[in-house]
Amino acid sequence: MPVTSINRGASTRPRYVKVAVNSGRMTYLTFSYAVPPGRVVVVGEVVHVPFGKQTFQGIVVEGPFDTPGYDPDAVRPLEPPVEGAPRISPERMELAAWLQRYYLAPPWEAHALFLPPGAGERPRTSYVRGDAEAVALSERQQAVYDALDAEPRDDDELRERVEGKVPARSFEAALSLLVRRGLAERRYSLDRPRGQARVAEVVRLRVSAERARAFSDAIEGHRASRRARAVRFVLEHGPSPFDAVAREARGGPAVDTLVEDSVLVREGDLVRLAIDPAKAPALLRRLSRGAVEEAAAAALELLAGRAEAREEPVVHLRGLAGEVGREARAGVERLVEAGLVEVLQVLERRDPLAAFPVVVRPPVELVAEQRDVAVEIRRGIDAFDGQAFLLHGVTGSGKTEVYLDALRHTVARGRRGIVLVPEIALTPQTVRRFAERFPGKVGVLHSGLSLGEAFDEWHEIARGAYDVVIGSRSAIFAPQPDLGLIVVDEFHEWTYKQHDPAPRYDARTVALELGQRSGAAVVLGSATPDTERWLAADEGRITRLELPRRMRPAADTDGYVRLWPQATLPEVEIVDMRGSTRLFSPQLVEALGEVLDREEQAVLFLNRRGLAAYLLCPKGHSPACSSCDIAMSLHEGGRLVCH
User: pLDDT at residue 556 above 80?
Assistant: First the structure.
């Protein structure tokens, strides 16, 4: 069992930790490292460790502990602390240790399941120019040497630099020779984790809207624009001949534009001001502006408008270019220098449900048999001792409504839940159903999300933003705090088993173990339970609950939806086709005729693989595989194939 303790510096002897190292190799070992004096280390912390000549990522799984038998000179110390490194909670560390033992999983792979998406750091080898003197080099070796400099560069960068000069098959040999002779030096480092928070720059107004507008009007540039020259000429000389104004403006089009904008008016051959002369100085300031000054003025106007509308005077710098032009950043820098605005960095969340339409709906009133089941599950939730329930309900029996009732009870007790679905394709419809009852409090976590979305969702879950987390099998490792309920829907599905990559696990077994360790109740729901859990229920290790009847919803006048049990399930008839020479049985033909007479539709499922639907002799025998006893399929050429 991991020991969560802290190096308090009370002992002068070195202290040690055991680390699960991300070496890239399938190893079942942990490695011991010395804790530098004064360093605080806890179990679950992500650290960097020396490993051979390289530096690798690792997770502290035991310690710190004092082991006098260790030779301090033989144990290498931890690398400096990793800024912002995630930590795995003690509860999840215990679950990871169990997973490692139960599934014989490598230590790093077992513990890394509980890290944020994209937290893995890959080792990187780069090269810099060495101090030795470059003599007696071949043409190819010289080309590789010339590609080196003081900046660390990896293989790919160096290959690009010598492309066309050094054949690919000669590159490695030339680089290895340079390293041996001290002309190149290897450097080892770790790439940044691929999962990163997205940081956005926003511009915020620091002054009143009134002052911002006044400053915007007063912004003056240094351009002697053609239109400014025309206005200034008419302002100084009064009504003037068109040709004279055009010469000053270096062309008639500038004058025509001012006439179209109602700044000047043309009366015959004369041109005069059409605006109040008192407004001319402000106009000249605007006409003298370049693109940067225009962007600064427009940004101030935009922020002032938001402030006057009682909105927060903040805009995204990235989106400001679309509003005020390409010189938005340069314009904002001018405003920052003037003390009118400030640029802040804020975290920008990538929400996978941002465009997900949800209609809030009231709870459904359960029928008597559903209430009986719900009461049992509520008792298990309140007991907080990890009780497990097998909810055996036929399709359409309202199992989801029981889940929703259990989650509502869990949330009312100040706790949260995880809901697992067997495949990603089912996630949207499940999310919609649960989001209708828990608006704004449902998170998702599955492999269909982008890395950025998964990274942000993981951190939102960790800070307790959601009452319910929904996802496929990997969501069982979500850092949901205050866990009170785990629901595994359609738990008979094989997709709850992880095959590749390692570690291999069964999310249903992990859910039961997590329930035992956290005290959360576990509900396994299915219309066709697997034999393993059915046996566990028969032996009393799991409480079996039954929903034997289908339900149909009916809306009442008070707006609440009530469920009404259907009297009977659809009739199922098994027909013995032995001795029959027809493809369709008389019963099937008769039933299809009745359906068509009622102008309804029918669906026929054809179990076909190969060239025949099935192989069955008149005596009822079907040829089976000698190895696995599975029925053989007929393929082209008369071949019988086992699938």
Answer: no
